Each structure stands twice: as C-alpha cells, then as structure tokens.
Amino acid sequence: MHDKVKIGLMPVKREFFSIQTAREEYDIIIPIIHAQMQEYVEWVEIDDLCEQGMACHPQDVDKIVKRFKEAEVDAVFAPFCDFGEESVVTGVCKEFKVPVLIWGTKDKVSTYEHREKETQCGVFAATKVLRNYGVTFSYIWNCEADSPDFVVGFEKFVRVVNVMKNLRNANIASIGDRPAGFYSVIHNQLQLIKNFNISVKPIGLAAIGQLSQQICEENSEELQAYVKDFSSRIDISEVEDETYIPKVCAGVLAVERLMKQNNCRAAGFDCFGVGRAVGLPGSGCVIEGELADRGLPTACEMDIWGAISMLILKSAALGEDAPLLADWTYRHPTNPNGELIWHGGPFAYSLADKAKNPMIKARKFGPRSMYEAHWELKQGELTMLRMDELDGEYYVFVGNAKTIEGPATTGTYVWVEVEPSWKRWEEKLMFGPFIHHVGGIYGDYADVFEEVVRYLNDSRRGVKVNLETPYTPGPKSL
C-alpha cells in the first residue's frame, strides 16, 4: 500500500506570445508529465478553464485557485510553455502553503528570426516574483522534455510533496507516559502547534488495555487470521505462553484502531507501559514493529521527535517501506567507521534478514523474564535522519549509511558503516542538538530531505530549521 499525492497542474504561457507555438509545446510536454509516477500522482487540471489549457490571463487566477482549493491539492506544478506570465504564476501559488514546482524545457530554436518562447528567460522572471511573495518553490533545471533529469527531478519532488503532506496538520499520538529517566525526549507541544501545526494527542494505557482485552475475548476472524499470519512468518518456538501471541496481535489491533480514531499518523510509545496494558511479560516493542509494517510508525520511550522523524522517512519512501527508530549504541570492534544501530525489538519484520531466522526470543531483562523480537536487519543502504529542537530553533540531521557484518546481539539490530568517518558523525550528533535515537529507512533520500528542510523554513514567521550533515561545519571533539 503506497501513498498518493494530488498535484494541481497549471501550464502557463505569456499573454502576447504565440498561442499556437505555446500549444505545440503543451502537446509535447503534457503527455510526458502525465507519464511520470502514475501510481503515485493524481492530477487536478485546468484544461477546461483556460484558453488552450494554459494559464496566461489575470482573470484565470481566481478560477484556478478555486479549483485547486476545492480539490485540496498537495502541490502546484507550473510547467512553462513559453516565457510564461509571472503575475499569474505568483497569483495562484501565493494562495497555497504547499510545495510548488517550476520547470520549462530547453528551447530548440533561438535565432534572430525565431525567438518565439524564451522559456528560460521567463522562468528567471517568475521565480524572482515568487521569492518576493515568500513562495518557496522547487525547480528542475532548463532541460529537454524527455531528459532523464526531468524524470529524476519530478520523482524527487513527489517525495518532497508527500513528506510535506503528511506533516501538514499531523496528529502524533502520545501513547502512555514518558519514562521518568528520559529527559532527552522532552518536547514543546505548544511550539509544535505554532510552528508546524503538528498536534500531540494522548491515548491512555487504560483505553489500550480495555480494547485489547475486548479484542481477545471476541476472538474475531480478523484476530485469528492475524495470529496465524504472525505465527507463520516468525519463529515462536521459545514462546511457552500460549496467550502471548494473541495478546500481541490484539494489542496491535487496539493501538491501530485508537490511532486511526484520533487521526494519528505516528506515535510516541511507552514500550513497557503498553506491554503491561495488554498483559505481556515485559516490553511491548514487538507491537511497534508490527504497527510500522501497517503504516503507523511508533517511537520508543515516548520520543515525539523520533515519531516525527519516522513519519518524514516513511513519507519520503511514499509509504512503501517501514522506517525504524534505533539507538546509536556500540562502535564496531574492527571497523573504525562502523556502529551498531539497535533497539530491544521494535524494528519492523519486513526489514529483517529472513535467512537468519527472525524469532521471538525468551530472555532476561534485569529482574524481568520477557519475550523479545529478535532479528538482524537485511543488508542494504540506509538514510539516517533525526529532527529535534533547541531554544526555539529546529535541526534535521541527515546522513547515508550502508549495512555491514558484525557480531550478533540481542533485540533488533544491524551494523552500519558511515562516511566520511564515524568520528565526524559522532561529533555532529553529540553537539547536534540530537540524542541517542535516530530514524532510518532503506534507500537514499538525502537530497529529498535537503529540499524538505527548505520548505520547513519560514523566515517570515520566524521558523528556522537547520540542515545538519556529517559534512557541515561544527564543533569537534578535543
């Protein structure tokens, strides 16, 4: 199940340039545009509102704005069919707080006799006016319509749009209580509302316990099918308590139902609190992994910024891959740039290396006897991300890592190698301001997040978001 975005498509032309020439360009580029990301994009078009389907007159603005607002578009795309009309482009785009894409093709003729479009020239003009009005926009450079650069750039834009769509008016569930000792995950709910319109909604442990017990007692076909599926893909040979798996599955269904009732897209999660609520002997981390695979990322230890980071990661992948939230824990014993990313069981099963027998393992955790999800993750490339706050400013750390082999351990984990050096990563994370938690997702989305940070910034409202990478300057260790 993947995400989908709705984009308002607004081809533009200059009022006094040739309508025939612009229409010829329109007929070339619109089929190419329609062919991009067809499973992920729903178009809202203006072909019946404007002359030859292209916006160019001042009277077009209100009609287009009305259509796009009624459709609740997630972005606006203005391909230039000639010089374009900056007043029309800006007149529409300034009415929306969504990503905007600007692009025009490389004109094929530029002789003295045939200067009929001047596309690049018009794009320079329009983008200056967009900046004057405080409109943040993305841009694909002046390339041919069939260029791979357009295909790559458009895909990146769709991913950016999906991130911004999912952050816009997002509700993040607060499930249970913050563990007493975890001051590092404290967050400012008022500033989240004020600066990003993100709300934190509490979901009580009692409600989860009551609903999960009800689901267990009803023992519906849905629960029975889920228990069968869970038991078929994960080794449960060490689980002696025959009620454990039904309780896990009922807990997943209960949390999922309550999150959806509250329109929550991600959650901070009280792992041991949820475990107690649904009757598990220990942590409820395994419930988190299952929720991630069901499209609801949750962050251990009531880490709301961790949940937001996971939501950003999931959205960049268009909902096709589950994100994870890990602890930075141990240096690799032999690789100086290697590090263990680990947590006690919340990583999604879909990410596991299936050849290494994913299982629910019985083990001691201090004085507790408990069951724990236990699997090493698959090999591949990861993008690591953490968003956090300090003194009214926001920080997004982004870096790429690749998995490597390393010593086996407990819980859910994988070893990663980073560039340019682990020392630089450690310095950047230490002085950040970041904590021991980091989000990750398979694939390379670093350039997507760079663009997302541009949209999150809002200088006119005083919202400052800083992009941090292992390569950006900063304090160093002694």
Can you walk me through this structure?
It contains 14 helices and 18 strands. The chain has 478 residues and is an alpha/beta fold. It has 2 domains: 5-167, Rossmann fold, CATH 3.40.50; 171-468, L-fucose Isomerase, Chain A, domain 3 (Alpha-Beta Barrel), CATH 3.20.14. Helix 7 runs parallel beside helix 10 (271-278). The radius of gyration is 25 Å and the shape is elongated. 36% of the residues lie in helices and 23% in strands. Strands 10-11-16-15-14-17 form a 6-stranded antiparallel β-barrel. The chain has a 5-stranded parallel beta sheet with strand order 2-1-3-4-5. A 4-stranded parallel beta sheet has the order 7-6-8-9, sandwiched between helices. 47% of the residues are buried. The two termini are 48 Å apart. Strand 3, helix 3 (86-93) and strand 4 form a beta-alpha-beta unit.
| Count of domain modules | 2
Poorly predicted sequence stretches spanning 5 or more consecutive residues: none
CATH architecture of the largest domain: Alpha-Beta Barrel
The amount of helix comes to 25-40%
Q: How far apart, in Å, are the first and last alpha carbons?
A: 48 Å
CATH topology (fold) name of the largest domain: L-fucose Isomerase, Chain A, domain 3
Number of strands: 18
By secondary-structure content and strand pairing, the structural class works out as alpha/beta
**How would a crystallographer describe the biggest sheet?**
6 strands, antiparallel, barrel
Question: What is the strand content?
Answer: 15-25%
Count of helical regions? 14
Mean pLDDT comes to 95
